[in-house]
Every structure is written in C-alpha cells, then in structure tokens.
Amino acid sequence: MQASKMPWYKLDSHHAVHQITKAPTLQQMQKAIDAYMDKKIQAKATTDQNIASLQQKLQELSRHLSSGDADQVTARSSYYLQHMAGLVNQKALLEESGDTEAAKVAFQSDREEEPQRAIELVINYMHSSLHSTQGPNARVGAVRQYRFAVETALAFPKPQEWSYQLDSFTQQQFDGAQLQAPGGSAKRAANHFNALQLQNAAQLHQVNKISNQYFYDKVMTSWNVGANQGHVQDKLQALLPLLHNAAVKQQVSAQAAICQQTMAIQRQKKLEEERAQRAAARRRQAHEKKEFEHIAEECRKLEDDMESDIL
C-alpha cells in the first residue's frame, strides 16, 4: 500500500518508521521516537489512558523495526511512560491555556539534549519579562512569574543545579537594579498622608482612598502580574520614609498588600480602561475626520457656486 493511500491514523507510524530506520545517529533516532510519542499523547485523556494507548501504539510500531531499533524504542519510551502525568499536563497547557509561550519553552527545554542549553532556554524566557525601568522587586516579581509558569509546564524532573542557576539569575536581577527615589506623585501623596492622624473613621477612609489610588496609578499593564506586585513593593519602600505617622505607615502598607494580592484584577481593570480610552480616541478621531471632510466638501461647493456667479 502506498503511503498516500494509508488511513490517516497510520501515516504517523509509517513516517516514524522511516525516520527511525533512516536516522544517521542515535541522537536523531531518539528525537524521531520522541516526536512520535509526543504526537500520540492526548491532553483530554487521563494518565492511565495515555499510558495504555501509547504502549499499544509502540508495540505496533516496533513490529516494523529491527530488533535493535525496537530496543531503542523500548528504552526511550520507558522514561516517557514513567513521567506520563507531566507529559499530559504539558500537552494540555500547550493546547488549552491562554498563554502557551511558557509551555512551549518547557517543551523545548525538556527535549534539549544539552543540560546547559536546556536551562538557558528558560533563563532567556525569564529575561524577556524584564523592562529597563523596573525596580529591584519588580524585576524579581517579573522573572519569578515566568519561572513558575515554565516549571508548572515541565514534564521531566530537573537536577538541583537547575534551581541554583535560576535562583542565581533571579538574585542578579535584584542586585543589579536600584530603587528609584520618590517622585512628585509620592511626595504629593506623602503630604496628604502626613496631614492625617487616623483619629477617626473618616481619616482612615481617606488614608485607604489615597493609598488605593496611589498604588493603582502605578500599575503597568505592559508588565506581568508578578512585576506589578514587585513594583508596588518598590513604590511602597520609596514612600514610607516620607511618612511621619507610624499608624498611617502601617495602614498604607496594609493597602499596598491588598493591591498586591488583587493585582491580577487590578491589572485587568486598568487594561480594560486603557482599551476603552483608545477606542474612544479612535471614535473621536473618526468623528473629527468626518466633520473635516464635511467642511471641506461645503467649502468646495461654495467655491463652485462663487465661480458660477462670476461666470
């Protein structure tokens, strides 16, 4: 039977046999085996169902291989079968999550033969979360969120050296950044705070209101949630030395903590506000353009009328 006439569910096996038997090196053979197994994992099936299904497919595949190649399939697949739960989770994140970038990095890192290259893929991804204006806590929050996303999607265990290098990279981000001096908004907020003594409920409400607005204004929608949580911490550390009252300091710190805990909601709210503002600006520009075109058309008509009168 020609390959083009095979049922669709047998084409993968036919292709895998060709890739395995024609592989010029053991490493390329192993990659061909891995690629075949990756295709057969089903995100919506259970771990046990995937194990049973993959074992059956590998047995069928091995019938078309030499005994030596079949042994390589058995050896390679044992590691996959051992870590099937992680592989199923990874496949689900690749197919179903809203942000698949971290899962893609985890997938590539898991299948990288060189250990140092595997960790460099993750470090490069963590580095992509950074912005030049981020303070020390913002940078740490940014890379930690990306690290967590990748580690959640990893299918295979990593050596202890992995954690050491990622911890070291994270610490470098903190050590290499400087806490910015208080800006004009911090000084204005401090003036309001220092005028309050927290002697009644009204003043407590006022402190909370100023705090919430101050920290909300600091949310950066182009940064991830972890970076924003750290950013709030940076801004809090810059603000506190300007405050005179210990009770006010404590209350402002408490409001900062609430902002950090609800940062996903805060960031989404601000993102929607920015989208609405951009949409309103586009509508306004379209309206102004339409009015301008209308005025231009009226001017042309007036000019035509004047020329007609002269003639």
Category by helix and strand content: mainly alpha
What proportion of the residues is helical, as a percent range?
A: over 70%
Low-confidence stretches: 1-9
What is the overall silhouette?
A: flat
Largest sheet: none
Number of strands: 0
Our estimate of the beta-strand percent is: under 5%
- Alpha-carbon Rg, integer: 30 Å
> Helical element count?
14
Overall mean confidence score, pLDDT: 89
User: How far from one another are the termini?
Assistant: 87 Å
The run of helices and strands is HHHHHHHHHHHHHH
Word description of this protein:
- The chain has 311 residues and is mainly alpha-helical.
- It has 14 helices and no strands.
- Helix 5 (84-96) packs antiparallel against helix 6 (101-110) and helix 6 packs antiparallel against helix 7.
- It is flat, with a radius of gyration of 30 Å.
- It starts with 7 loop residues before the first helix and ends with a helix.
Keywords:
about 300 residues, disordered N terminus
Write a brief structural summary:
The chain has helices at residues 8-22, 26-40, 47-62, 67-82, 84-96, 101-110, 115-127, 136-153, 160-175, 184-194, 201-217, 225-239, 246-261, 263-310. The chain is an all-alpha fold.
Ordered list of secondary-structure elements with their pairings:
Elements: H1 8-22, H2 26-40, H3 47-62, H4 67-82, H5 84-96, H6 101-110, H7 115-127, H8 136-153, H9 160-175, H10 184-194, H11 201-217, H12 225-239, H13 246-261, H14 263-310
